[in-house]
Design a protein that fits this description.
By secondary structure, the protein is α/β, with parallel strands linked by helices. Helices cover 40% and strands 11% of the residues. The chain folds into 2 domains: 214 residues, Aspartate Aminotransferase, domain 1 (Alpha-Beta Complex), CATH 3.90.1150; 252 residues, 3-Layer(aba) Sandwich (Aspartate Aminotransferase, domain 2), CATH 3.40.640. The protein is built from 19 helices and 12 strands. It binds ligand F0G. Ligand F0G binds next to helix 4 and helix 10.
Length: 491
């Protein structure tokens, strides 16, 4: 296996026609047959799923755009690497190969493996968060918030005031506001702040990156106050790609160089390998031995021995290869360029979407799409259900259903109500992307038929995964009838 990172090849190919078309820089060699079930079945399936797309079975799903987590396409090199896995409880050479990939790509010597991203959040939170701790961050992620609050900490989000504007030309909406960071530290005192967290390609605000200039500023403030900087690198490849595209200083730098620059600024880098390297697992890495030592007993307690951490050795091998592939621009650009294409097409149709196009997925603005549905009736959840009905495509609600309740039991209304249509890396084709565009267009024309939804079963923790909801009226039946009327006997 190649030890060094692959050469980065150019990502953009110009068309003579001038059209901006994302070109697949790979070929399909293993396929999976998909089902597109009729609208009548889709109507029954979404009701059975409690109007929660997490509860749909994939036999009822045509394009699974729920997430990129664990669903990115595996490369031939990744699959091949699994054959050389070294099965051993302790001291596996597969882990040595992963360590070497992490050191080459992230520049960190000490690696703690974990079974997925949230497991690393559990370990970091248990190690460093105490009751009363304050954790400033650019923006929360659902599982991050859950682990920090479970350990008695409080999350403070410090994006710039205009970062939550849905339509924007700001290249780095994931930047932390440095003035606000200083104010948070002045208010609470550095002693109460175990670390500052920065999330690459900030997930819940539409996969929006931060710049290296901003991360340098965060680092400067952290150093001034002796606070640790923790980087959530689950979507670091995409963030690095956007830095290359959008930050002048790095226009000619390789993605590998940018990745290192980003990670060099952090004391601890953690990641969900389900996202960053298109396999399973997760990891925490650092160059600070004392931080490694603080966390390692928690790994053996919750995850497994230090050389497998709850991940199979086969997956450790594919994770190592996938990490190296993340530095290849022709690989890492695939998902963002398809997202950019769809976002551009939807904008041209007047459909409200988060701009600029970010990483992970195309984010449709449910409040703009469904202005007649108040936030208490969960417009993003309603849109996710309605879009499944219209297309068989499964997206994910990223709005108030994914939020939590306050101490009085009232919903904390989300800052944004988004339907996320994820583009796992190298999975969907351009014609499938055009199908998504077409069915969203139809739905937009018929948006007044869509109504709200409400909880009928609501788990206390991370309710969006297993919660069940119901429609506030017979709007799903009316929408399905309109689909049948417009599309005849087509699926
Ligand atoms: N951090 C970020 C930024 C994430 O996007 C995720 C997962 C995690 C941590 C947790 O990692 O799932 O391996 O436990 N995001 C997935 C998603 C679930 O669909 O956006 P995990």
């Amino acid at each position: 296996m190649n030890k060094t990172a692959p050469e980065s090849s150019p990502a953009k190919v110009k068309f003579f026609s001038g059209e901006n078309i994302p070109l697949e820089l790979h070929k399909v060699r293993v396929v999976q047959k998909l089902n597109l079930v009729p609208v009548e079945r889709r109507l029954a399936a979404i009701a059975e799923a409690g109007f929660n797309t997490f509860q749909l079975g994939t036999s009822d799903v045509y394009l699974d755009m729920l997430t990129d987590s664990g669903t990115n396409a595996m490369s031939d090199a990744q699959t091949a690497s699994m054959m050389q896995a070294d099965d051993a409880y302790a001291g596996s050479q597969s882990f040595v190969r992963l360590q070497s990939a992490v050191e080459d790509v992230f520049g960190k010597k000490y690696l703690l493996p974990a079974h997925q991203g949230r497991a690393t959040e559990n370990v970091i939170s248990q190690a460093f968060v105490k009751p009363g701790s304050i954790i400033p961050m650019n923006y929360h992620f659902t599982t991050t918030l859950a682990h920090i609050t479970r350990n008695g900490g409080e999350v403070v989000e410090i994006l710039a005031d205009d970062a939550l504007q849905i339509q924007s030309t700001k290249p780095f909406k994931g930047n932390m506001d440095i003035g606000k960071l200083e104010a948070v530290i002045a208010k609470h005192g550095a002693a109460k702040i175990p670390f500052i967290r920065m999330e690459a390609s900030t997930n819940l605000i539409g996969g929006q990156p931060f710049s290296i200039a901003n991360l340098r500023e965060v680092r400067r403030v952290a150093d001034k106050h002796g606070i640790m900087l923790v980087l959530d690198a689950s979507l670091i490849g995409e963030n690095a790609y956007f830095v290359k595209q959008r930050e002048d200083e790095f226009k000619t730098a390789s993605v590998a160089t940018i990745l290192r620059e980003l990670c060099d600024l952090a004391d601890i880098v953690y990641f969900s390998a389900r996202k960053v390297s298109s396999s399973r697992g997760g990891g925490i890495c650092t160059n600070r031995k004392e931080l490694f030592d603080t966390m390692k007993s928690l790994i053996v307690l919750y995850e497994g021995f230090l050389t497998y951490g709850g991940i199979s050795v086969r997956e450790i091998e594919s994770m190592a290869v996938g990490l190296r592939e993340t530095t290849d621009e022709s690989v890492i650009s695939q998902s963002p360029s398809f997202i950019e294409y769809l976002v551009g097409r939807l904008q041209a149709l007047g459909i409200p979407v988060v701009t600029p196009a970010g990483g992970l997925g195309c984010h449709v603005d449910a409040r703009g799409f469904l202005p007649h549905i108040p936030q208490k009736d969960y417009p993003a959840g309603a849109l996710a259900s309605a879009f499944y009905l219209a297309s068989g495509v499964r997206g994910m609600e990223r709005g108030t259903v994914s939020s939590v309740r306050d101490a009085q039991g009232n919903d904390i209304l989300a800052d944004a109500e988004l339907l996320r249509l994820a583009f796992p890396r190298r999975v969907f084709t351009l014609s499938q992307t055009k199908y998504v565009e077409d069915r969203l267009h139809w739905l937009y024309q018929n948006r007044e038929l869509i109504g709200g939804i409400h909880f009928v079963e609501e788990p206390e923790v991370l309710r969006f995964f297993n919660g069940r909801l119901a429609a506030n009226s017979d709007w799903p039946q009316k929408l399905a009838a309109k689909f049948r009327a417009d599309f005849g006997d087509s699926l």
